[in-house]
Structure formats: C-alpha cells, structure tokens
C-alpha cells in the first residue's frame, strides 16, 4: 500500500514537470513567431548639420567594371567612427540614387561601422543591401573594394576589415565575394589599383 | 520495508521527472536540425575525382545553390556546367586530360570542392563562373599574399593557396597573354573567391560574360565553343610545363 503523502508528492512533481515542458514549448513558439526587425530603421544616424569637408570616395561602375575616385562633401566629424559612418552614408547616397553606376535598392544601408583598435574596422550591412546586390564575381568585388577602399583611404590606421550582414557573419556577399574572413586592406588596395587601371 | 518502498518510489519519481525534462529539451531543439560540421568528407552522391587530371574544371554552384539568376530561365549553375563540359571536350580534343568537379546538378560545398581538388592534385584547377554584367572573360587568382606564413607540413585552410600562388599567377599571365592575341575582351584580377584560397595546386577562376550585352549569348553554342576553344588553346602552350611540374 503506497502512503497517501507519496501519491500527493508524485502528482505534484508530475504536474510541475508537465507545466515546465508546456512553458518551454510556449517560449519556443513565441520566439519563432517574433518577427526579426531586419531593415526597419536606418541604424547609421542622420547627417549632423554644420560644416562639411570634401572627401574622396571610390565609386564602382558596373557597365565598365571599374572603380573611380569621386569627390563628395560630408559633414565634418571629430570622431573617427562618426567620420566612417559619414563616409559610408555618402557612398551609399551615390549608389541608391536613380541612374546610379552601381545600383542598390533604396533600403540598402550600412547599419553600423565599428572601429576596433588596433586597425580593425567592421562594416555591418543590412539585408536589403545584400538582396539588392548584383550577383557575380566582378560585381561583388566592386562593392567590397568600393566600401573598403573608401574607408581605409580616408581613415588612417585601418589594416583589416570585416563585413557583416545584419550583425552576423555570412559566407558570401551574394554567392561569390567571400565574407567569411577579414579583408587585408593592402590586398584590397592592390585590387582597387587593378580595377582603376582598366 | 516501508521506508524502502518510499525510497524506491522517490527514485522512480526523480527518474520520471528527468525523462520529462529530456523530452521537453528534445522538443525545444526539434526545429533546429543539427548541422554537420562544414568540413565533413564529400557526401555519397559526389563522385570522387579520378586521380591525376592535368586540368580539373569546377562548374561553380549547382544543386540547391543556383548562383546568379542571369535571367529567369538561366541560372548560373546551368551555364557553368555547360561551359565546363565544353571546355573539357576542347581540352580532351587537344590531348589534355581534364575532369569535372561536378558533372550534374548536385550540391557540392566549397570545402568539398577544395577537398576533392586537393586529393586529386591536378596540375591546374579552373573554377568557372558566369555573369550578366561585364564583357568577355575575367581571369582571377586568389586574393592572398604569395609569401604566406610557413607552417611546415600543416597548411592554414584559409590560406592553403599561398604556396601555389606564384604558379597560379604565372598560369593567369600565360593564359591572359594568349587570349589577348585573339582580341577577346579580357581582364586579369585578384579575387576573394572561395575555394581558390583553399586549393593547394595552381588555381584560377574564370568568369564568362556576354560580349553583346545580351545574357542570352551565354546560352549560344557558338559563343560557348568560341570561349572554350580560346581557353583550351591558351592552356595548350603551358601544358608541358604543367605536366612536368616545371612551372616557375
């Protein structure tokens, strides 16, 4: 004969275990149903009003398959990170305009640029940027070279660059350009020379 | 006796609770299939490469990886396979043994491709791509420093090409020089394009684009024959050096 208190304890423990399993299952469903806030808001803050400076950005041209220097005006920034963000905003401003030489959709953005000493820069793109990127070895190389050469030629000290998409590592930009590792700035400069000399 | 029964029952309860907890954990992770490590050996459907081809041709993409949508009816994976088969034919017609990394619409990961090539040890590896942008042929070698770190017998997977990079660039230059004589639109670049950097033999990538501006040209048998014959003709003069291993 099983004592009554043991039966009660058994029922309570089973009820607790069942309740915990249901709770965990519901948490899982809730997490799966929560939409990922992908490209909801521009992450790089809007340009600050004030004095501007002329900078050289490296602009890709799909029809000629080349990289060309172009001078644009960006707000003067005292901080390196802010300057990096202004540079990326200025470059994407060219790519997202009508009749762009290297078109990207209107939602394409650089979410953040992180400058990590010593010499590492991290460029975080949004998913709209990647979806709108033309797939192909040359087309993707032009994008990578344009971003990295613009950043490294205007901000001294950057030696390696990592590109993320929505804050996460990605194997390729759009099926070709390798994003799994760091880009060596000196190698990208060599590529940029090849792309400008054509 | 009564205490023994109680202890047994308590043990059974604890065991039951543990089983329920395990069941809940299994349910929690059931929607996230466990992925095999990326560097597992090739799947059974991938044909192991026959030994010792002079040239190993790799039609990029395939299977679940369609590559670029050159147009709605023309995924890159199909175009690269057609070009690869034709290039193999053109090379065979010139007495150059050539093999394919894939000879059908199957999924082969980048690591698997590199693994197959490194096992087969061909004298030259050619990764084939196709694009709607650009014009003609672009030849690529890996974006790496040619004087990579010496680690003795152990190679860093991400820079395994370093030791063969001088020979890869030699092959790129020779093929470029030969193709330039044909007047075909041509460029030579470096690229961060896997699996070039994971391959231990001389390796180049070739991206073929239409010269007419019309993507449909990539589907033209005449255009495919012209491109592949030009590439095969460019490989013929360097075949003896590749065959004898006397590449600089």
Plain-language structure description:
The complex is a heterodimer of chains A (198) and B (248). With 198 residues, chain A is an alpha+beta fold. Chain A has five helices and six strands. In chain A, the strands form two sheets. In chain A, strands 3-4-5-6 form a four-stranded mixed beta sheet. Chain B has six helices and eight strands.
What distinguishing features does this structure have?
heterodimer, A: 198 residues, alpha+beta, two-stranded antiparallel ribbon, 6 strands, B: 248 residues, alpha/beta, 6-stranded mixed β-sheet, globular
Please report the number of helical segments of chain B.
6
Strand composition percent of chain A: 15-25%
How many strands in all of chain B? 8
Tell me the strand order in the biggest sheet of chain A.
3-4-5-6
First and last CA, distance of chain B: 88 Å
Q: How far is the N terminus from the C terminus of chain A? A: 93 Å
> Judging from the principal axes of the Cα atoms, what is the shape of chain A?
elongated
Largest interface: A-B, 45 and 47 residues
Q: H/E element string of chain B?
A: HEEEHEHEEHEEHH
Broad structural category of chain B? alpha/beta
Task: Please give the share of residues in helix of chain B.
Answer: 25-40%
Strand proportion of chain B: 15-25%
N-to-C SSE string of chain A, H for helix and E for strand = HEEHEEHHEEH
Quantity of strands of chain A, as a count: 6
**Major sheet of chain A, described briefly?**
4 strands, mixed
Helix segment count of chain A?
5
Largest sheet of chain B: 6 strands, mixed
Task: Write the CATH homologous superfamily of chain B.
Answer: Zn-dependent exopeptidases
Low-confidence stretches of chain A: none
Question: What is the fold-level CATH name, i.e. the topology of chain B?
Answer: Aminopeptidase
What is the SS-derived class of chain A?
alpha+beta
């Amino acid at each position: 004969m099983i004592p009554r208190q043991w039966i009660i304890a058994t029922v309570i423990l089973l009820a607790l275990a069942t309740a915990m399993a249901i709770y965990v299952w519901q948490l899982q469903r809730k997490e799966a149903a929560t939409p990922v806030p992908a490209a909801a808001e521009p992450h790089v803050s809007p340009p600050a009003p004030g004095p501007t400076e002329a900078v050289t950005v490296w602009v890709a041209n799909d029809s000629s398959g080349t990289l060309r220097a172009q001078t644009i005006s960006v707000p003067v920034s005292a901080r390196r990170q802010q300057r990096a963000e202004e540079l990326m905003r200025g470059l994407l401003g060219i790519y997202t305009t009508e009749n762009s030489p290297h078109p990207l959709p209107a939602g394409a953005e650089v979410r953040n640029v992180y400058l990590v000493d010593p010499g590492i820069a991290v460029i975080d793109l949004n998913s709209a940027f990647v979806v709108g990127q033309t797939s192909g070895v040359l087309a993707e190389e032009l994008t990578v070279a344009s971003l990295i050469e613009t950043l490294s030629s205007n901000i001294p000290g950057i030696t390696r660059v990592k590109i993320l998409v929505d804050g996460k590592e990605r194997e390729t930009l759009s099926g070709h350009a390798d994003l799994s590792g760091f880009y060596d700035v000196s190698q990208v400069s060599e590529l940029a020379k090849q792309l400008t000399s054509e | 006796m009564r205490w023994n029964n109680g202890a047994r029952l308590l043990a059974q309860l604890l065991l039951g609770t543990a089983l329920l907890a395990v069941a809940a954990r299994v349910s929690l992770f059931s929607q996230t299939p466990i992925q095999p490590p990326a560097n597992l050996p090739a799947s059974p459907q991938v044909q192991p490469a026959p030994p010792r081809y002079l040239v190993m041709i790799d039609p990029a993409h395939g299977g679940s990886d369609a590559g670029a949508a050159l147009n709605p009816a023309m995924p890159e994976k199909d175009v690269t396979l057609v070009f690869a088969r034709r290039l193999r034919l053109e090379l065979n017609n010139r007495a150059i043994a050539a093999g394919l990394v894939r000879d059908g619409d199957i999924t082969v990961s980048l690591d698997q491709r590199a693994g197959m090539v490194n096992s087969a040890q061909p004298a030259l590896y050619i990764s084939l791509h196709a694009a709607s942008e650009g014009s003609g042929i672009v030849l690529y070698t890996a974006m790496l420093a040619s004087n990579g770190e010496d680690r003795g017998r152990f190679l860093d997977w991400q820079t395994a090409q370093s030791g063969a990079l001088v020979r890869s660039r030699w092959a790129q230059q020779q093929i470029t020089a030969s193709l330039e004589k044909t007047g075909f639109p041509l460029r030579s670049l470096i690229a961060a394009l896997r699996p070039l950097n994971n391959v231990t033999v001389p390796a180049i990538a070739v991206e073929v684009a239409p010269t007419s501006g019309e993507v449909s040209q990539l589907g033209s048998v005449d255009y495919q024959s012209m491109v592949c014959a030009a590439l095969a003709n460019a490989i013929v003069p360097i075949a003896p050096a590749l065959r004898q291993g006397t590449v600089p």
